[in-house]
Structures are given as structure tokens and as C-alpha cells.
Amino acid sequence: MGHYRSWDKSIFLIPILMFVYGCGSKSTETMNSILTVTGVAQNGKGGALLVVDDNMVYYLEVMDAWETSLTGTRVEVTGTLRIETMSEDDLKNEQGEYSQGVAGEKKILTNVKWKTLE
Fold first, then answer.
1. Following DSSP, what letter does each residue of 33-82 receive, concatenated?
2. Predicted model pTM
């Protein structure tokens, strides 16, 4: 009978693991089209940014920062758009404390090519 008891416990463990795995995971969607956007080169905690005229922000993958001479200049960036969506629950640890981050959509340009416009 001991053999069945350990198996019975696993039946309860599987849904719990699926629930824990499903909670707190951000979703990522990669668009198939190439996007070209124009904006101002800025640096942030998350790396190099492009702030477009409507104040929308695009993060540039693999770029830690713009060179100092480029910060504040207008640039045109072309890349593939990836969108990461995080909920407020994604920002909480097991104790319910918030970590640094922003809930909502984070637009990331991958495989970027850029040029200055000034």
C-alpha cells in the first residue's frame, strides 16, 4: 500500500507545480516584420533606449548604452520587434515584495541597425 501512497501524493503535486510554473511568468511575443522607428537616443537602467515622438520607448537588445556623444541625438533604428508583457504578479517575490520593473508591455528591438539623422 505504501507504493500507492507515494503515487497519490504525486497526483496532488503535479497541479501545484503547473500552477506555480504558470504564475509569475512573463509572456513574450516576437513579431515577424521588420520595424523602423525614429526617435531620440537615451540610456536607462535597462540599457539603450529609443524614445519616439509620442514618448513610446523601445529598448535595443544587446546594447548596454549609447555612446555619450550619441545620447540625446535623433536616430533611426531598424529591427525586429519583440514584446514582453509582465503583470504586477511577475514583479513580486515569494514574500510578496516587489522587485524593480514595470508592469505592462516592454517593446524590444532585436537585430538592430541604426543611423544618426543629424
1. EEEEEEEEEEEETTEEEEEETTS-EEEETT-----TTTTTSEEEEEEEEE
2. 0.64
